[in-house]
Amino acid sequence: MKILVVDDSKVMRQIVIRTLRQAGYAATVLEAADGREALGTIRAESPDLVLSDWNMPEMSGLECLQSLRGSGDGTPFGFVTSEGSEEMRALATGAGAAFLVAKPFTPEAFADAISGVLAGAL
Amino acid sequence: MTALVRTDSETLLSILEETWTSFVEADSVLLPLIDPPDHYDWTAAVEVDGAWTAVILLSVDHAVARAVTAAMLAVPEPEVVEDDMPDALGELVNVVGGAVKSLMPGPSSLGLPLVARGRLSVAAAPVEAGRAEILWSGQPVRVVVRVPFTEPEEAVS
User: Strand pairing of B108-110 and B30-32?
Assistant: First the structure.
């Protein structure tokens, strides 16, 4: 199983990866620093899940997801972001995201969000 | 026009506690600080723009910057390189800013964090709308919310 973690912060990528481990996911973890880099990695590596920040330079997480879905790519995609308002959750869902986990988060929140999405990949 | 909506210090303390226990130290104890310093070594800021406009600032000394970076990266403090400190502080203010924004009128959007040694100029948001001065691990930490306008006032808790 492969999970792609997308965040412009190296520190936050490390925290997300650590939280994934704490939530029980022993996946191969790939990293990207923005949405544009993520698109290339998704096409090259076909991850089972993308966990993406929302606000990033170059290309946001939402733009990345819209580009993916626009090209017919249905790779499971979830947001891990500082903004968890209802409007952002609606935007995320409308664009094709499976979930939005708001920071700060816990391993339990990760497990709850991810378990259903990855059930078929385990 | 953007309304000033005040953030009380208890709410800010609660947001800081949640952020610190999640990302820095699971058993973090944050205490109110009676006699805060005038100067901090580092300031991180994030802007909220939209129905509610504000700048949220996080200020810490170098020792705290190093300690939180080490904790967030899960490495010993001597292994922390200075380049990682702005990244860690930027993420902390980003999360605090996102939590404050979620309590305010929307829709608004959160910008990308800015981090600097010393002070950051926030001339566009001169009015203080909230402040928390706390002590973590024996070291002071400050969070300030600044907004552009002074009225109407309404406290959000």
Answer: unpaired
Render pLDDT for A23-57 as a digit per residue (tens, 0 to 9): 999 889 999 999 999 999 999 999 999 999 999 99
CB contact under 8 A, A103 and B22: yes
State pLDDT tens for residues B47-83.
999 999 999 999 999 999 999 999 999 999 999 999 9
* C-beta atoms of B98 and A82 within 8 A: yes
- Is A42 in a helix, a strand, or coil? helix
- Residue A4 distance to chain B (closest CA, Å): 18
Look at the block and give the residue holding tokens 């920071």: A103
Maximum pairwise Cα distance, chain A? 34
Distance from CA of A54 to the nearest CA of B (A): 10
**Dihedral angle computed from the Cα positions of residues B49, B51, B53 and B59, in that order, rounded to the nearest 10 degrees:** -80
Buried b (16+ CB within 10 A) or exposed e, B103-133: ebebebbbeebbbeeeeeebeebeeebbbbb
Chain B residue whose CA is closest to A56: B112
Locate B36 and state its tokens. 């805060």
Going from the C-alpha of B139 to that of each of B10, B30, B73, B80, B84, the distances in angstroms are 19, 10, 20, 18, 20
pLDDT tens by residue, A76-109: 999 999 988 888 899 999 999 999 999 989 999 9
ipTM of the complex: 0.86
Contacting residues of B for A105, CB less than 8 Å apart: 22
For B101, name the nearest residue in chain A, comparing CA atoms only.
Answer: A83
List of chain B residues whose C-beta atoms are within 8 Å of the C-beta of residue A12:
91
- B121 CA: distance to closest CA in chain A (Å): 22
pTM here?
0.89
